[in-house]
């Protein structure tokens, strides 16, 4: 019997019902196949604004908080932490923390779990670390959160540092994050993203039918799936669309106001948000997949989830260079300027081969989320064993 088999995980992640699937969702789902897990939706790092989307989301979270934990899979529950608005006020912050802790303790008693691991994917609920009777604290860091748009950088940087120092084990998804976290906590390990390989590989299968909405689009189709927001280089995209009016640029995902300057281009097709499981159907029409990110400190520290997803489709990939993308430089075309981006797309269109497509897929075929989570859990179990000592006696949950 494994030591982990006597534990449950309380998992602090971003919105479980968000339009796009993130590493937070993928890791939690695999953990719940191994141990009981309650997924705790945490308030966003930025304060809500008066938009319809934010207001609907806030109302949904209030209702979910009142309901408490709800079982959503055989070993998985979902609940939502409360958030009183005006949280920059110190008194409100203190009330939010007190309410969150008391509710979580009550919910955990309802679940009757006695041995806990707390697992944080975001830093701002880190004040709960070691406050819930857990034996072990994991911080799975996927971004430099203080650099995200709209957040209070000083506050998030402080919370991130506090959680990094507090955690028994830190995982970081990129080499720059590993370097920064290791300086604060030597128990830091590199844990890059996984990929739903079989799902995305279907994009190259002859039996995969593209959505009817794109059947009329002229090729070549330059594709992107994901949120179209301030992380993308909007000026670069405008340059590409203007320079090559005969190309179709297909964007699959939610758009934010930052994308407004692109609305004027007739050769850009906006598919809007689509179900995660349908991504291979959309990608099946891509002739080239692109990652046109801004070159800034946030992107430098990131490990784009779609990198491995794109490679799993077999499609040629053109991207701006970052440390994690450059690790695949033999498979991904890198571009530092708008003209280089154009040139690299043209080269990809002209020189792609069946062997190149197979090489891209083969490179990520063994990087499944199941494999990644198994590696992470082996490190956690080793650390937990060392912390508790060889004389630990198993108890039931």
What is the secondary structure topology, with strand pairs?
Elements: E1 8-13, H1 23-31, E2 37-41, H2 52-67, E3 70-73, E4 76-80, H3 90-111, E5 116-120, E6 136-141, H4 153-166, E7 169-172, H5 175-182, E8 188-190, H6 197-201, E9 221-225, H7 234-243, E10 248-252, E11 268-272, H8 279-283, E12 288-291, H9 297-301, H10 305-313, E13 317-319, H11 323-326, E14 333-334, H12 338-351, H13 354-364, H14 369-388
Parallel strand pairs: 1-2, 1-5, 2-4, 5-6, 6-7, 7-8, 9-10, 9-12, 10-11, 12-13, 13-14
Antiparallel strand pairs: 3-4
Helix pairs in contact: 1-14, 10-13
Major β-sheet strand ordering: 3-4-2-1-5-6-7-8
Structural class: alpha/beta
Spell out the helices and strands N to C.
EHEHEEHEEHEHEHEHEEHEHHEHEHHH
Structurally, the number of domains stands at: 2
CATH topology of the largest domain: Rossmann fold
CATH class of the largest domain: Alpha Beta
Whole-angstrom Rg: 22 Å
The CATH superfamily of the largest domain appears as Glycogen Phosphorylase B
Mean pLDDT: 91
The total of beta strands comes to: 14
Quaternary state of the chains: single chain
Q: State the CATH architecture of the largest domain.
A: 3-Layer(aba) Sandwich
Shape: globular
Helical fraction equals: 25-40%
Low-confidence stretches: 390-397
N-C termini distance: 14 Å
Give an overview in words.
The chain has 397 residues and is an alpha/beta fold. The protein folds into two domains: 3-194 and 368-388, 3-Layer(aba) Sandwich (Rossmann fold), CATH 3.40.50.2000; 197-364, Rossmann fold (3-Layer(aba) Sandwich), CATH 3.40.50. The protein is built from 14 helices and 14 strands. The chain has helices at residues 23-31, 52-67, 90-111, 153-166, 175-182, 197-201, 234-243, 279-283, 297-301, 305-313, 323-326, 338-351, 354-364, 369-388, and strands at residues 8-13, 37-41, 70-73, 76-80, 116-120, 136-141, 169-172, 188-190, 221-225, 248-252, 268-272, 288-291, 317-319, 333-334. The strands form two sheets. Strands 3-4-2-1-5-6-7-8 form an eight-stranded mixed beta sheet, with helices on both faces. Strands 11-10-9-12-13-14 form a six-stranded parallel beta sheet, sandwiched between helices. Strand 13, helix 11 and strand 14 form a beta-alpha-beta unit. Helix 1 packs across helix 14 (369-388) and helix 10 packs across helix 13 (354-364). The chain is globular, with a radius of gyration of 22 Å. The two termini are 14 Å apart. Residues 390-397 have low confidence and may be disordered.
């Amino acid at each position: 019997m494994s030591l982990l088999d006597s534990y449950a995980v309380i998992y602090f992640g971003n919105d479980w019902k968000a339009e796009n699937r993130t590493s937070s969702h993928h890791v939690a789902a695999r953990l719940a196949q191994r141990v009981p897990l309650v997924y705790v939706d945490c308030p966003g790092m930025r304060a809500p604004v008066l938009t319809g989307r934010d207001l609907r989301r806030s109302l949904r979270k209030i209702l979910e908080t009142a309901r408490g934990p709800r079982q959503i899979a055989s070993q998985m529950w979902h609940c939502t932490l409360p958030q009183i608005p005006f949280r920059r006020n110190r008194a409100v912050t203190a009330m939010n923390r007190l309410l969150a802790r008391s509710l979580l303790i009550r919910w955990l008693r309802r679940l009757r779990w006695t041995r806990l691991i707390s697992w944080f994917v975001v830093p701002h609920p880190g004040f709960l670390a070691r406050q819930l009777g857990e034996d072990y604290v994991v911080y799975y860091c996927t971004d430099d959160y203080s650099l995200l748009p709209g957040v209070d950088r000083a506050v998030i940087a402080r919370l991130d540092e506090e959680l990094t120092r507090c955690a028994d084990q830190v995982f970081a998804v990129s080499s720059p994050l590993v370097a920064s976290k290791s300086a604060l906590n030597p128990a830091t390990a590199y844990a890059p993203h996984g990929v739903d390989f079989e799902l995305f590989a279907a994009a190259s299968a002859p039996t995969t039918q593209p959505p009817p909405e794109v059947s009329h689009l002229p090729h070549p189709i330059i594709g992107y799936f994901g949120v179209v927001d301030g992380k993308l280089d909007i000026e670069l995209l405008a340059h590409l669309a203007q320079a090559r009016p005969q190309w179709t640029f297909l964007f699959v995902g939610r758009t934010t106001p930052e994308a407004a300057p692109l609305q004027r281009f007739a050769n850009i097709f906006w598919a809007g948000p689509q179900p995660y499981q349908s991504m291979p159907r959309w990608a099946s029409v891509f002739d080239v997949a692109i990652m046109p990110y801004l070159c800034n400190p946030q992107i430098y520290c990131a490990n784009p989830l779609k990198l491995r997803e794109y490679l799993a489709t077999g499609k040629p990939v053109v991207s701006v260079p970052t440390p994690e993308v450059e690790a695949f430089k033999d498979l991904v075309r890198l571009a530092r300027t708008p003209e280089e981006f154009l040139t690299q797309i043209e080269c990809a269109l002209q020189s792609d081969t069946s062997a190149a497509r197979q090489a891209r897929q083969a490179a990520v075929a063994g990087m499944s989320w199941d494999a990644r989570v198994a590696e992470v859990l082996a490190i956690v179990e080793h650390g937990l064993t060392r912390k508790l000592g060889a004389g630990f006696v198993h108890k039931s949950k």
